[in-house]
Write a structure and sequence with these properties.
By secondary structure, the protein is an alpha+beta fold. It has a domain of 121 residues: Rieske Iron-sulfur Protein (3-layer Sandwich), CATH 2.102.10. It is built from two helices and eleven strands. The strands form three sheets. The protein has a four-stranded antiparallel sheet, with no helix packed on it. The longest helix has 28 residues. The protein is elongated, with a radius of gyration of 31 Å.
Length: 183
């Protein structure tokens, strides 16, 4: 009897998994993997990727970078905008033509912006002159900041932003586009 007490009884073994159960488990696992990867992809897609200093983000420009009034506009290729200074104020003009999305350019000899694709013409502040474009050039929202970091003016209109006294920096938000006035 002592011998039988030391022997352990074998545990009951479950029956082996059959083919149908295996396929159900495999299908469930593949669906869980698919849904998980789709969820991660949707989350990554929805996250904002714009940072300060790149297109879709905010550009902080020293007031010294603003062209003098009446001078040709300054091209900011990394932000996809032209910075202009007219008698009415400062504008950050989006570099895409409002007609069909071509990239217009500044023409010094004519003192205006011209679209090489279809001939639309715009004044230095982005106002429509002639051509097939349906409206003036689009602009980006801007704000003027003093030396202490205080916001002096926030501008989200389709006209040049007046430059307040004491402006040290201009913030151009390329994530907020303001549509130009209808032609």
């Amino acid at each position: 009897m002592a011998e039988n007490d030391n022997k352990e009884t074998p545990a009951e073994q479950s029956p082996p998994i059959n083919r149908r159960e295996f396929l159900n488990y495999a299908w469930g696992a593949s669906m869980a993997l698919f849904m998980g990867s789709a969820g991660v992809a949707a989350f990554v897609y929805a996250m904002p990727r714009f940072k300060e200093g790149e297109f879709g983000g905010t550009f902080i420009l020293d007031v010294a970078n603003v062209p003098n009034e009446g001078m040709p506009p300054t091209d900011f290729a990394e932000g996809k905008f032209w910075l202009t200074h007219t008698g009415d104020g400062v504008s950050a003009l989006y570099k895409v033509c409002t007609h069909l999305g071509c990239l217009y350019k500044w023409v010094d000899t004519n003192d205006r912006f011209e679209c090489p694709c279809h001939g639309s013409k715009f004044e230095s502040d982005g106002d429509y002159i002639e051509g097939p474009a349906p409206r003036s050039l689009d602009q980006f929202a801007m704000s003027a900041v003093d030396a202490n970091g205080n916001e002096l003016i926030k501008w989200e209109e389709s006209s040049p932003m007046p430059l307040p006294e004491g402006t040290a920096e201009i913030k151009v938000d390329t994530g907020k586009k303001v549509k130009g006035a209808a032609a």
